[in-house]
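Course assignment 3, question 2. Fill in each field.
Student: A.L.
Task: Predict the tertiary structure for the chain below.
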Amino acid sequence: MSVTETAAELIPRGADIGTLAEVAAGCRACDLWRRGTQTVFGEGLASARLMLVGEQPGDREDLEGRPFVGPAGRLLDRALERAGVDRSEVYVTNAVKHFKWRARGARRIHDTPNERELAACRPWLRAEIEAVRPRVVLALGASAARTLLGRDFRLTRHRGELHPSDAGHLLGATLHPSAILRGPPERREELLAGLVHDLRGASEAAAGRG
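Answer field:
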């Protein structure tokens, strides 16, 4: 596919998740495809009531082609289990579909996507939301929160809150599991408990119990 300003013109109208994933595999809307091994699209229940949106794939996700399968994904699985949420009934994806990284020796280290990259990939996320039609979309981390809730959103101030969107679903944000892993070890259980609390609240709202 040719290089475009955003992915918007690549997306078929009314496409289902399977079609979106196939088309996204060839996306060239920003330069991140040059460094990533492959597009890492969302996965999960195509009619999920709860959608979780991270920032971008990590090293393991880039290699396997699936979201949240690395260390952060394993921590997310623990948090979902503790919150009483079945991951198979959730749709998980990322705001950016390619791994942005910088070299540190032989390792590939996460590098935060910039506004241009987030904007280029935003149409894919919108298309996923339109196809899945979740009741609740929960951003994991600050980058995903900015994509969904705007640049002025502050995760530290509004974490866990759910607000109605123009499209009819509820929007909120919580910690990204990778932030818990990178944080102080002595606070890890406290931060994990906060993530579990927010996941439980989002799940209850998605089920109509919130």
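Instructor remarks: The chain has one domain: 8-206. Residues 8-206 form a domain with the Uracil-DNA Glycosylase, subunit E fold (CATH 3.40.470.10).
Grade: pending
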